[in-house]
Amino acid sequence: MAPREFRHALDDRLAAIDGIQCATAGKDLTDYVGDRLLKHGVQPGIEITSEASRAVPVDIQARRPEVPWRKIRGIGNVLRHEYHSLSDRIIWGIVVDELPALRSAVVFLLSDPHQDDGSGAP
């Protein structure tokens, strides 16, 4: 995948995380469980985050080794194919515990001045 394409994937991931955080701000697990529209917004956002992670090259992923890249890719498969096996508590845990750190990593990768953007510019 060309560098521009993976940067676009990082932008998509950031937009998905920001959308989830906006939709869930001030809410808790009880709110999430009781709001069908919220659930139907959060879960696809997590799927986008998962799918976008597939576009990030391994050498770029290595810049943030604390990010569980493999698990992020895997949750998308679970949401698409085994959604019935995920509890609301697990999804809410991702929203509260995982997405803030992932957002920080994405922002870092997008702003890293030493990252080759493929343009050939110094």
Overall average residue pLDDT:
85
Number of helices: 6
| Helix vs. strand class | mainly alpha
Dominant shape: globular
Termini Cα gap: 21 Å
Helix and strand sequence: HHHHHH
The low-confidence parts are 117-122
Assess the beta-strand content as a share of residues.
Answer: under 5%
Name its key features.
0% strand; mainly alpha; disordered C terminus
Question: How is this structure best described in words?
Answer:
The protein is globular. The chain is built from six helices and no strands. With 122 residues, the protein is mainly α.
Task: Please outline the helices and strands.
Elements (H helix, E strand, L loop, with lengths): L2 H22 L4 H6 L1 H18 L4 H4 L7 H13 L6 H24 L11
Précis, in short:
The protein has 122 residues and is mainly α. It is built from 6 helices and no strands.
